[in-house]
Amino acid sequence: MGVMLHKKRIWLWALPVLLLLAGCAVTSTSGNKMLRSNAFEKQMQKPGVILLDVRTSEEYAAGHLPNAVLCDFNDGAFLQALPTLDSNKTYLLYCRSAKRSDKAASMMKAAGFKHVLQLQNGIQGWKGAVVQ
């Protein structure tokens, strides 16, 4: 009976922690890590993190995340910039719906980048401030 009670206590402690961790990050169908808005915003606060907006210049002008650098995936700017990026840094990517950012994250992963995170549901899922 004591062993059962001990196991029950462990699960009562571990279950909320597991649920909390599961709620912060998911993996895209391509195998790339995606963060919900609040977790993404926390990552943005870390020093040295680079925030890349892979949308078009028109989308960027309509509103973007604070301190985001435009690197348009569609016009080739992202592909051109990729060899110049430091693969040891942490990159946060987003687009409108996470489709382009997922493609960009896959390209970065294939190029040897280890620390690439993207915003789940793109800017459509963003709950924080937007700069115009």
Briefly say what this structure is.
With 132 residues, this protein is an alpha/beta fold. The protein has five helices and six strands.
Task: Give a verbal description of the structure.
By secondary structure, this protein is α/β, with parallel strands linked by helices. The protein has a single domain, classed as Oxidized Rhodanese, domain 1 (3-Layer(aba) Sandwich), CATH 3.40.250.10. It is built from five helices and six strands, in the order αββαβαβαβαβ. It has helices at residues 2-24, 37-44, 57-62, 77-81, 99-110, and strands at 25-27, 33-35, 50-53, 69-70, 91-94, 116-119. Strands 1-2-6-5-3-4 form a six-stranded mixed beta sheet. A hairpin with a 5-residue loop joins β1 (25-27) and β2 (33-35). It is globular. Mean pLDDT is 88; it is low at 11-23.
Uncertain residue segments: 11-23
Question: How many discrete domains?
Answer: 1
Please state the second-level CATH architecture: 3-Layer(aba) Sandwich
The CATH H-level superfamily is Rhodanese-like domain
The CATH topology assignment is Oxidized Rhodanese, domain 1
Largest sheet: 6 strands, mixed
Strand order of the largest sheet: 1-2-6-5-3-4
Helical residue percent band: 40-55%
CATH C-level category: Alpha Beta
The whole-number mean of residue pLDDT values reads: 88
Estimated structural class? alpha/beta
C-alpha Rg (nearest Å): 18 Å
Distance, first to last CA: 62 Å
Indicate the overall shape. Answer: globular
Q: Secondary-structure element sequence?
A: HEEHEHEHEHE
The DSSP helix count reads: 5
Strand content: 15-25%
Q: What is the strand tally?
A: 6
